[in-house]
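Support reply, case 0932

Customer input (verbatim):
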Amino acid sequence: MTSLSLLLWIAGGIFLQVATYLVIVFWRHWLDYQNLQGRAAALDLPATVTAPPEDEAPAVAAWQGYRTFRVARRVVEDVAHSICSFYLAPEDGRALPHFLPGQFLTFRLDVPTTTGGTEQIIRCYSLSDAPRADGYRVSIKRASPPPACDVPPGRSSGYFHDQLEVGGLLQVRAPSGHFHIDRSEAPVVLIGGGIGITPMLSMLEWVLAEQPGREAWLFYGVRNGREMILKSRLESLAAAHPNFHLRVCFSNPLPEDVAVRDYQHRSRVDVHVLRMQLPLKPYHFYICGPTPMMEGLVPALEDWGVPDSRIHFEAFGPASIKRRSAAQVTASAASGAAGVVVSFAKSGKELNWQPGSASLLDFAEANGIAVNSGCRAGGCGSCQTTIAAGEVSYSQAPDFDPEPGSCLLCVCTPKTNVTLEA
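Our regenerated output:
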């Protein structure tokens, strides 16, 4: 046998081995494929890749301006009949954009006046439910005048409670706001004082539906059981979700309120309660409530050592809770504003800025300059004004994002000489 013949025999043997191996591999894959097809048929599953279902269509875009909504349902939520939930459905029947839990809706209301006409006012109310494609929910407390004070009750909340029935129509701007829960897996502590529970409810419902494995705590503070809302709903959620811990605080319980059954702590929600209950973990804190609670709790969390980046809060109305980390910046900005001239182009006025003024809106009104306004807290955008020249500064980011070249007068002050189209 020549060397060439030997080489051919060796090459042929190698080829035969490779071919045999490929046939065996193909046969095994074929058997696996047939087995998978059989299992799919038994489970009534499709054996081929199909197009994404319709409910996974691209997200619905937020609408511009105001959209008409109808009150589909009203539900009184508390024993005192002071809080009512309004379920809103779009009048056009089209799908709604999802919102970030914690955001709010802005309403343009035509409120009756004592003279028989109406006055248009703008108000913002937090969404109190998890995102749904067919409707929104807001839960609104009737704002009563302070005791022994000659101040009228809340006009917008009174309108909702007394004038708005099922079938009534509302003009609503798309959900907005920078106060919303993050989508990480970090443990979270939700703190709601009084009607400040509403954005916490939205966050909680979303977490339990979308992230059931995420550790969540809810500290809910009210004076007594007559002011608590959605008690049975919260208790059922706590019973159904082992990662959710509900802690109710009554600062002034009634005789019929029973400890443990109705509440866990006889106190306001403060850092002492949190330190007693919470294990040492890197929690994110989300807080909403009346100004006294916020003014005490936010600095106390900072003193406890909670990083600034893990404290998220929203105060009622025009209240502004300043972080200590921003205090020096705010102070220097205020002192640097001395000598600044504010020009109101339409009104034809040039005025020396007074550093003690809370905002450009307050400054304008104090000098007889009329400016549209609503929430006075940087949420509704009603006071948005074009800046013709100069710069302004914000002590904290507003919830409403002003258009480029404009500002929200209610939450900013002049940084330099500034000319405003007002």
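We compared this against your earlier run and they match. Two observations from our side: The domain at 188-321 is CATH 3.40.50.80 (Rossmann fold). Residues 31-57, 327-332 have pLDDT under 50 and may be disordered. Please reopen the case if you see a mismatch on your end.
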